[in-house]
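User: For a benchmark we're assembling, each entry needs the component sequences followed by a predicted structure for the full assembly. Here are entry 17's components. Please fill in the structure.
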Amino acid sequence: MSKVLVVTSGKGGVGKTTSTAALGAALAQGGENVVVVDFDVGLRNLDLVMGAERRVVFDLINVVQGDARLAQALIRDKRIDNLSLLPASQTRDKDALTPEGVSRVIAELREKFDWVLCDSPAGIEKGALLAMYHADEAIVVTNPEVSSVRDSDRIIGLLDSKTAKAEKGERIDKHLLITRYDPGRAARNEMLKTEDVLEILSIPLLGIIPESEEVLRASNLGSPVTLNNPVSAPSRAYFDAAKRLRGEKLEIVVPLEHRSFIGKLFGRRVA
Amino acid sequence: MNLLALFRRRSSAPVARERLQVLLAHERGAAGHSELLATLQEEILAVIARHIKVDRDKVHIKLDRSEDIATLEIDVEMPDLIPLMSARG
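Assistant: Structure for entry 17:
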């Protein structure tokens, strides 16, 4: 049975697109049949992070409006053939998305793939609401920082009221993905603690992704970090998160600071 | 705790946590609160208009919330008082 997930956050720049690409690739690397869908109409970026920006011919809007068939718009990844991308339009705006059209496309994607990962635009307006509407589950991407946590709280409220599941009186499963976690600042007590974020938002934790140059390097190269450097710290965290999405019970590891010898002498243990 | 930490200023994470908890407690409770203000504005205006002729732009309603107390402020700028006086007389 296929699963539709929305990757959302409210706030921009927290790592939705990076996480959609990394989790989508990680699931595909585990043998699942995956499509990542860019809902950020007008400001698409998932194509760039996936390294498919020069292969876009048709997009989500073309399919929604019936100008192209779904199969024409899907871009199959060159590295793993069970990973596909449905890009957003760069020239149109969000008003081109209609609820009926989106509903039809999602239904069609459910037939073709095991996992449909929808990369939501930032904000709480039409685009974000359409991206979450058909989701079975949601991944709430949050940085351990006040404005991000506040916006995530708002998004959780919308997930519980404005999705198809919520309208039917069903519960939508929500997973918290903490990104850009900085072990150094955590050790100095200068960053919201994971426990604090969890207590405030009270949804289960899917994973903690450490802040890393590897993420930036991967996006420079147009490759999900889990493909570009599978053994790096963020990749390992994404692989674990993907396994948890598939139902595996894995202990969550809080990333520790990589410390120098002097740092170890004077440092303080985090956990 | 190490020696250096003793000389450091108070860490900022606990402050962030406290501010968020207070803020979100209010925001969650006040879901649909903007609608409440609009409704209040209309109904209060209607009550006043029954007795006094007021300009609708001269009625301001404000809700202010701090940690322990919430205040509802209603500010009505009256026109000249003649209609009011004559109504009484």
